[in-house]
Amino acid sequence: NNMEETNKNKNKYSIIIPTYNERLNIALIVYLIFKHLRDVDFEIIVVDDGSPDGTQEVVKQLQQLYGEDRILLRPRPKKLGLGMNCLHSWFEHASGSFVVIMDADLSHHPKYLPSFIKKQLETGASIVTGTRYVRSGGVHGWNLMRKLTSRGANVLAQTLLWPGVSDLTGSFRLYKKSVLEDVISSCVSKGYVFQMEMIVRACRKGYHIEEVPITFVDRVFGSSKLGGSEIVEYLKGLLYLLITT
């Protein structure tokens, strides 16, 4: 019985959500996480890069609603983006034995969290990653160019790096905290490439990785942060990983 399994689950999950100008999304994503993780011990850590749009004020209201022990706000002075240094600073705040990292823009739907947790409990995996590229996974709201770019990036990475994971560029993942700390300590990339480096390094280190099909939905509010410079960064990162792993 799934309910019984969940109730026996004594793990705590730290859900880290990096934000920059996500005032319109953050309340909805928090609501959905609470809705889908009713029987799970979790905390939500919002790491905000000094959003000028009032994201932090919304998070403070959510703290009053759900409790400051369940929603932690960790402001940073400016837009520092993703990468190793950020994750290091996030760790200090995570009290769970598992860490989930997800986007604030609803492209990562909280409804998949129970299947991530269930998959980890069933398999004992060190990392569970969401994949768009298997049966019943997919992408909504992308134009053909964006789909081809993402798919091409993924195929290229698969061919060159042989990681044994079908979706390298996705970033919706659940990690054992100890594994995340170990993998991060060997990563050097920043930005878009960072997620790919993490999973490739984890594969090289021999960690047990499982996948769960997800449908990635293009951001509902706000503007996408992927541009031409990110694609160049990605290709440089790919070459770097090819040489160093």
Structure description:
Belongs to the glycosyltransferase 2 family. Residues 14-183 form the Glycosyltransferase 2-like domain. It comes from Citrus clementina (Clementine). It holds the Pfam family Glycos_transf_2. With 245 residues, the chain is an alpha/beta fold. The chain has a single domain, classed as Spore Coat Polysaccharide Biosynthesis Protein SpsA, Chain A (Alpha-Beta Complex). 44% of the residues lie in helices and 18% in strands. Helix 6 packs parallel to helix 9 (228-244), helix 7 (177-184) packs across helix 8 and helix 8 (192-204) runs parallel beside helix 9.
Keywords:
Spore Coat Polysaccharide Biosynthesis Protein SpsA, Chain A, seven-stranded mixed β-sheet, Dolichol-phosphate mannosyltransferase subunit 1, two-stranded parallel ribbon, alpha/beta, dolichyl-phosphate beta-D-mannosyltransferase activity, 44% helix, DPM1-like, 245 residues
Produce a short descriptive summary.
Keywords: Endoplasmic reticulum, Glycosyltransferase, Transferase. The protein has 245 residues and is of the alpha/beta class.
Give the C-alpha Rg: 17 Å
Q: How would a textbook summarize the main sheet?
A: 7 strands, mixed
Q: What is the number of independent domains?
A: 1
- Which CATH C-level class is it? Alpha Beta
CATH homologous superfamily classification: Spore Coat Polysaccharide Biosynthesis Protein SpsA, Chain A
The average pLDDT value, as a whole number, equals 79
Gross CATH architecture: Alpha-Beta Complex
Separation of the first and last Cα atoms:
42 Å
Sketch the topology as an H/E string, one letter per element. Answer: HEHEHEHEHEEHEHHEEH
Number of strands: 9
**Fraction of helical residues:** 40-55%
Structural class of the helices, strands and pairings?
A: alpha/beta
Question: How is the largest sheet built, in terms of strand order?
Answer: 3-2-1-4-7-5-8
Task: Quote the CATH topology.
Answer: Spore Coat Polysaccharide Biosynthesis Protein SpsA, Chain A
Low-confidence stretches: none
Question: What form results from the Cα inertia axes?
Answer: globular
Strand content: 15-25%
Count of separate DSSP helical elements = 9
